[in-house]
Write a structure and sequence with these properties.
16-stranded antiparallel β-barrel, four-stranded antiparallel beta sheet, 41% strand, globular, 7 helices, 18% helix, alpha+beta
Length: 565
């Protein structure tokens, strides 16, 4: 190696070292692509020389003379490789954005109301007044984004949410496939979202993005106001806020519409049961694979979402408007084998009782309008308004039946199990005593109904504001007020919401007051108080069953410590 070439290479190495050295305050000096290729080629040349020397050593009468030269070349390769490893590592880190969030939350709950007989509006006993005092929760989030190139972006978030040193595990329906990563459970990290955005332009001036994976459908707007973050979800919370696997297509229409960032989005969601099912160590299904179907398990659920969104023109350029359409063409019937009292209805060896499971409970559509404006006219005022309309078309109901012929009562037709005692107590009192416990069997469970034939409609609103106080010495704290109300047959699809009460799912009214105090850029505290007046329960959960009137009143007081870095 000539002296001039060595000097040149070592100058490149020293320059590269300073450019990637972690203790330096700036990275102004960097190894160029041309310099990188010179060092890489030199390593290749040195390896070729070593191979030639190794061949000569095997044939040489005195190979020791070549060992020193080979060792010297290996040392040079090692020096150059260290530099290239650092440069390659930095090039990878340049496309990766890794962040973390840690939240500690303390909650106080207050409950007033009655317990009720199952599937009825009949209260049991005296009115209750119960409290939960100082419930502490930790939430860890790890966020990773990688801009692989101009066309592909990867995003992911994994969560752990856990009550302090809690050995209990919440049971159905508190945890389900729509919120498993966002509910307090064990110490496992769960994938809340992991998706690819692929950007392409099949038609000139019509850019598109294909998104697939575990999509960003949690933290629905306007959660960004109370959480004091940027927008984290594609859709309004009143329309859909759940953990979701699916495929979406977004089309940017700014070349065709005189609006700011107008876009049309479509999303296909599918819930799939793919193997044997267990719940709380109880086997629910005898299914052994995708090619063998268990007729009693809940069928596949498909949800289709379309949304148009845009920002309004000046002076309302910070105002976001959305129109969302959600469609469930076939609402699968519920699988209730996890309820011990209903096990006999699913027992193939019990011919007296059986579950009449429909192919579908019906179809559901929901239209949601959402508008949110931030820093309105530079006043520090943020506000939003969300309204949604829901309609269902009934097609059937899950019915728990009594088969009198199997009980030796020939000539009698099957009857609802819960009506069997009253019917046969008039015809055959002696026999009726044997089926008295069937009085507690559930009514038919349909799509927001208890007959399988009634269509439903419902409405919900959510509105509020947040005001940022012009107090720089206090890091500009803010306070907000939110109100939402939903009617009897409302179905919010809000299981993935981070708030413990799921206020956008509640059939009744909710007031939410909060104060946000930023401490630093990466650390804030929040104090909030929520007041809930339930008018109806959640039926048999999800969209199943007729909502029943209840008198529950719940309040929640929370203190949050939130760090993001």
């Amino acid at each position: 190696m000539t002296t001039s070439l060595k000097c040149c290479l070592f100058f490149i190495i020293i320059t590269a070292c300073f450019s990637i050295c972690p203790v330096r305050a700036s990275y102004d000096q960097k190894m160029t692509q041309e310099d990188y290729e010179i060092v890489r080629d030199k390593i290749y040349e040195l390896k070729q020389r070593i191979q030639r020397l190794e061949k000569r050593k095997r044939k040489a009468s005195n190979p020791d003379n070549l060992v020193h030269e080979i060792n010297s070349l290996n040392e040079e390769i090692e020096e150059y490789s260290v530099i290239l490893d650092g440069v390659e590592k930095k090039s990878i880190l340049d496309i990766i954005n890794l962040g973390a969030e840690l939240r500690t939350q303390f909650d106080w709950f207050d409950f007033k109301g009655h317990d009720y007989e199952p599937y009825t509006e009949n209260p049991i006993g005296d009115k209750l007044h119960e409290r939960v005092r100082l419930l502490p929760t930790n939430r860890l989030r790890l966020n990773l984004r990688a801009f692989l190139n101009k066309k592909i972006k990867f995003s992911s978030r994994i969560n752990m949410v856990r009550h302090w040193a809690d050995d209990d595990f919440p049971i159905y329906p508190e945890i389900n496939f729509l919120n498993a990563a966002r509910k307090p459970s064990n110490l496992d990290l769960k994938v809340e979202r992991a998706y690819i955005d692929f950007f392409f332009e099949p038609v000139e001036n019509l850019p598109m993005a294909l998104t697939f994976g575990r999509t960003p459908t949690t933290d629905g707007l306007p959660t960004d106001l109370k959480e004091n973050t940027s927008r984290k979800s594609t859709y309004p919370g009143l329309a859909y806020d759940c953990e979701t696997d699916g495929i979406a297509l977004s089309i940017l229409l700014d070349k065709f519409l005189p609006l700011k960032n107008p876009a049309l989005r479509t999303l296909w969601i599918r819930r799939l049961d793919d193997n044997a099912q267990y719940f709380l160590d109880q086997k629910l299904s005898d299914k052994f694979g995708l090619y063998r179907d268990d007729e009693d398990t809940m069928g596949n659920l498909n949800i289709y979402i379309s949304q148009f969104e845009t920002y309004l023109p000046d002076p309302l350029n910070n105002t976001l408007l959305m129109l969302n359409y959600l469609w469930i063409p076939k609402a699968p019937s519920s699988d209730l084998r996890y309820i011990p009292e209903l096990g006999d209805f699913y027992d193939k060896n019990n011919s007296i009782l059986y579950a009449d499971v429909p192919y579908s409970e019906g179809a559901l559509t929901k239209i949601t309008f959402f508008i949110e404006s931030k820093d309105l006219f530079n006043t520090g005022l943020d506000w939003f308004f969300d309204i949604s309309f829901l309609n269902t078309k009934a097609k059937g109901a899950l019915r728990f039946m009594f088969n009198p012929q199997a009980a030796g009562l020939n000539g009698e037709e099957p009857i609802l199990a819960r009506l069997a005692y009253d019917y046969y107590s008039k015809i055959n009192p002696n026999f009726a005593k044997n089926i008295e416990d069937l009085k507690s069997a559930p009514p038919p469970i349909g799509l927001l109904n208890s007959d399988g034939t009634s269509d439903r409609s419902a409405q919900a609103i959510h509105l509020g504001f947040r005001y940022t106080l012009p107090l720089p010495k206090l890091n500009k704290p803010s306070f907000g007020i939110e109100y939402n109300y939903a009617s009897k047959y409302w179905f919010g699809i809000n299981a993935g919401s981070a708030d413990f009460l799921h206020k956008r799912d509640i059939r009744g009214s909710v007031w939410d007051f909060y104060y946000i105090q930023p401490i630093t850029k990466n650390f804030m505290t929040r104090i909030s108080s929520v007041w809930v007046d339930y008018e109806y329960d959640d039926g048999m959960s999800f969209y199943h069953g007729e909502p029943q009137a209840i008198d529950h009143k719940v309040s929640q007081f929370s203190i949050v410590l939130d760090a993001r870095f």
